[in-house]
Design goal:
alpha/beta; 2 domains; eight-stranded mixed β-sheet; six-stranded mixed β-sheet; about 20% strand
């Protein structure tokens, strides 16, 4: 038998030509199908979204947020509130922040917060129809390189009342300042989110008023977290309370005022009609009765005073006050001090001259110069280190401590104690003030409160007896520490 070299199928038989053609045809079809699919995959494009569909990348939401931020950061020259703000000679709230903080350091919290009205423009799409930003701005920034928390009122929006504010945001910032031990700066112009009759009318019901952030504020004060405030307009109600609660407060002479209620409410309640903001609670009222610590020439001066005070203070009461490099030699001789105090005891002298000569040159910052004028208090540096200053003022009542003077020294003692500031004290006191005025103003009552402050504070107290130390007042001032640290000048 001859051999057969032709291919065989799986059964060993020779394939039929017709079957071979069918197999080749199927293979060609499969190959073509695969090639077609491959080309289709490489050329595929995402289907364009229809106009009534939301974009997959959330660009609509991001755009809306940015628009809200832009609206909040742009003054509306047509709004009555903004026009009145500028006509009154006041800076807009964002201008204040820009001028106070280090350049580029402002980081706002809740930059898109406020009241938004939305307009439906499709089955699932909305656009911003109107937006009222919050009237209390909050955020972080830096003052001369130091991190701070800042809150600032926008009086141009509902005069700072609650119906234009989101006080939960302000409360949140108060908690952050307490948690992270950051100084709190408060620029007050309005009621700082205080109560509003308009809100109650809109809601249709009244409520028992809460004291929002009261607990957090007191906790900050007791922890020695610096609270520094400025009245840059009319501080009303809650705004006034937030300002006065600060460790240090100042008021702009040209635009500042403060009161529990405005002139119209006062007229209806006490029949004192026609009062202006200045007459009711201007600088000549509150910078001379101790409610506000310092008078400032204008808003810029307020900002500079806040920066200056903070430079003496630590971030909290568990830290040491900051030390700077002293340019004034610690061994500097001051022979002029020998002639400051006159030999004739009935003659007066200028205590501020003694203070400014003894401490580092240019470092004395006086607090409360316009009230409690029988005493002088302030901050200074000795060898670059922060100290508190207390002095009797012989140019007023011969230095006798009256009720206001006692309150002023007491407040400063507590201030220095919570911030760990050692005190340098210049003593020249004939005792407590006497006479009918002294009795009517409860001088001894406040004198005893001063005694409590001297004996309950614990910071170091260095006494310089400049001239005389008489009576209960003298004993309290120089005998409240054991062991004593006191020296006497030849004039003492």
């Amino acid at each position: 038998m001859g051999s057969d070299d032709s291919p065989k199928n799986g059964t060993g038989s020779t394939p039929v030509p017709e079957q071979t053609e069918k197999a080749a045809s199927r293979a060609a079809q499969v190959s073509g199908h695969l090639q077609t699919n491959d080309k289709s995959n490489t050329g595929r494009r995402r289907r364009k979204a229809k106009e009534d569909e939301l974009p997959a990348d959330y660009s609509d939401i991001l755009g809306q947020l940015q628009k809200l931020r832009d609206l909040a950061a742009t003054p509306d020259n047509k709004k009555t509130g903004y026009v009145r703000q500028k006509e009154a000679g006041k800076l807009w709230v964002r201008e204040r922040i820009q001028k106070l903080l280090d350049k580029g350091s402002w980081r706002e919290v809740g930059s898109a917060s406020g009241k938004v009205q939305w307009k439906q423009v499709g089955p699932v799409k909305e656009e911003i129809e109107s937006f009222q930003p919050t009237n209390n701005l909050n955020g972080f920034g830096k003052l001369r390189g130091r991190h701070v928390v800042l809150t600032a009122d926008d009086f141009s929006i509902r005069a700072g009342h609650a119906d234009g504010a989101l006080f939960e945001k302000t409360l949140y910032m108060e908690k952050l300042a307490l948690k992270y031990k950051l100084p709190m700066i408060k620029l007050v112009d309005g009621s700082s989110g205080g109560g509003s009759v308009t809100s109650i009318k809109t809601q249709g019901f009244a409520y028992v008023p809460p004291m929002l952030a009261g607990q957090e504020t007191v906790a900050q004060l007791n922890a020695g977290i610096p609270n520094l405030g400025a009245a840059l307009g009319s501080a009303i109600g809650l705004g006034a309370a937030r300002l006065v609660a600060c460790h240090f407060s100042c008021m702009a002479a040209d635009v500042g005022s403060m009161f529990n209620a405005g002139p119209q409410v006062v007229a209806g309640a006490t029949f004192e009609e026609g009062l202006s903001f200045t007459e009711l609670g201007g600088p000549q009222v509150h910078c001379t009765n101790g409610t506000i610590d310092n008078l400032a020439a204008n808003e810029a001066d307020c900002f500079e005073q806040i920066r200056t005070v903070l430079s003496y203070l630590p971030n909290c009461g568990t830290q040491i006050p900051p030390t700077i490099t002293a340019e004034d030699p610690v061994d500097r001789q001051s022979p002029e001090l020998r002639t400051v105090v006159p030999r004739k005891r009935e003659r007066m002298y200028n205590p501020r001259r003694i203070i400014t000569t003894v401490v580092d040159q240019g470092s004395f910052f006086e607090i409360g110069a316009l009230w409690g004028r029988t005493a002088i208090v302030g901050l200074a540096r000795m060898g670059g280190k922060s100290v508190g200053i207390i002095s009797n003022n012989c140019e007023n009542l011969a230095g006798a401590i009256d009720a206001a003077g006692a309150q002023k020294i007491m407040k400063h003692l507590k201030f220095c104690d919570v911030f760990n500031l050692p005190i340098l004290q210049f003593v020249d006191v004939p005792g407590y003030a006497i006479g009918t005025v002294a009795e009517r103003t409860a001088t001894m009552r406040w004198g005893v409160e001063l005694m409590k402050a001297y004996y309950t504070t614990t910071v170091p107290l260095f006494n310089v007896i400049v001239r005389k130390v008489y009576g209960v007042a003298g004993g309290i001032m120089v005998d409240c520490r054991d062991p004593h640290t006191r020296v006497a000048w030849p004039s003492g």
